[in-house]
């Protein structure tokens, strides 16, 4: 009798029911909430696992990359310990930005990504790191392993987006973008977020 392929009989919760990847913290799986074409900010509904409209984008700036989170991560005390002056983690899954050469205009998808660095941000006193990664097997970015291999202007666009994406024009800027870090620190942040998740929700059941 031929072996049957494993499958989920019910839709897994994207945060709690999916794997963080085949080899975290280096190679991770990202659940994508918004794309560079979205003028509305979508965010996972933590109770149901469906995408919810969070808000229209406040400015004309759109996310320069695919943007989502790494499943089974949580930004808590361990993540905050890696971010000077942060009172705690923001209580959300760990955010991730994924570079892709080809335009991907569909959200609510899964992508395999290689971690290359990150952006340290503090949102109203809480650590709110943004991991930076590249799409695995991408024709342009697939071989990138370090943040300094990405053109600086693209990283500057990411930093500008996160500095302004929660502030309406003329409004108060609530996000403090501290700068970037390399893949070594990014992997430490991911390990901390995985540990924060286990401490908060327990060991995941596959």
Characterization of the model:
- The protein has 206 residues and is of the alpha+beta class.
- The protein has one domain: Inorganic Pyrophosphatase (Alpha-Beta Complex).
- It contains 3 helices and 10 strands; from the N terminus they run ββββαβββββαβα.
- The strands form 2 sheets. A 5-stranded mixed barrel has the order 1-4-6-9-7.
- The longest helix is centred in the C-terminal third of the chain and has 19 residues.
Descriptive key words:
Inorganic Pyrophosphatase; 10 strands; alpha+beta; 206 residues; single chain; 18% helix; 3 helices; two-stranded antiparallel sheet; five-stranded mixed barrel
What is the global morphology?
Answer: globular
**What is the average per-residue confidence, as pLDDT, rounded to a whole number?**
92
Strand order, largest beta sheet = 1-4-6-9-7
Strand content: 25-35%
Topology, please?
Layout: E1 27-34, E2 40-44, E3 51-56, E4 66-69, H1 77-81, E5 88-89, E6 95-99, E7 109-123, E8 126-127, E9 130-135, H2 152-164, E10 175-182, H3 183-201
Parallel strand pairs: 5-8, 6-9
Antiparallel strand pairs: 1-4, 1-7, 2-3, 4-6, 7-8, 7-9, 7-10
Q: Can I get a quick summary?
A:
The chain is of the alpha+beta class.
